[in-house]
Amino acid sequence: MKFKAVIFDMDGTLTVPTIDFDLIRKELGIPDGDMVNVIASWPEARRDAAWALIQKYESESKIIIKDGVLECLKKFRELGIMLGILTRNSADGVSRVAEKLRFDFDMVLTREHEYVKPDPETVRCFLREWELEPGETLVVGDYIHDIECARNAGARSCFYFNSGSRFYGDESDFTVKNFRELEAVVIGE
Ligand SMILES: [Mg+2]
């Protein structure tokens, strides 16, 4: 076994991406830059309205769990691997996915937390809680933020490549396209 803990991004990693962030950016008038940071810089009323809009899109989005997720999680748990979710989605959003998946993660960190991705402090929170070294931990995600927060905390990163989406595999330690491949990365051959 190569890793003692796996921290998963949620949207686009455990689930098939269905939230249209380009549309949300357009509606909010945030063509580029980090959405969370831009919204945080706004006055309270505008900020609240923005989060309400995002929440609306999220709660209306369809949850499609990717093939092989549950089998993979169960296998990791049997091996005693700690399992977490690190997401910029809400606690509500995670509950919806966990319910559909019928799986309880050991630790979940959402955007309601003091730190959000790509702040490496997010990853360090898991390491402190689990008393693990960064090198024993793998962060899996489909976006550059997932790779950056892993790298900046000293953890290993695994890019989950959804075909048709932007490729960040040059930045990560590993790249996978499905959960079979992830099992090989985490457990070894
Ligand atoms: Mg994602």
Describe this structure in a few short sentences.
The chain is α/β, with parallel strands linked by helices and 189 residues long. The chain is 43% helix and 13% strand. It has helices at 21-28, 35-40, 44-60, 69-78, 91-101, 121-130, 144-153, 179-187; strands at 5-8, 82-86, 107-109, 137-141, 156-160, 174-176.
How would you explain this protein's 3D organization?
With 189 residues, the protein is of the alpha/beta class. It has 2 domains: 5-17 and 63-187, HAD superfamily/HAD-like (Rossmann fold, 3-Layer(aba) Sandwich), CATH 3.40.50.1000; 21-60, no CATH class. 43% of the residues lie in helices and 13% in strands. The chain contains 8 helices and 6 strands; from the N terminus they run βααααβαβαβαββα. The chain has helices at 21-28, 35-40, 44-60, 69-78, 91-101, 121-130, 144-153, 179-187, and strands at residues 5-8, 82-86, 107-109, 137-141, 156-160, 174-176. Strands 3-2-1-4-5-6 form a 6-stranded parallel beta sheet, sandwiched between helices. α5 links the parallel β2 (82-86) and β3 (107-109). The mean pLDDT is 95. Magnesium ion binds next to loops.
SS elements, strand count: 6
CATH class of the largest domain: Alpha Beta
The residue-averaged pLDDT reads 95
CATH superfamily annotation of the largest domain: HAD superfamily/HAD-like
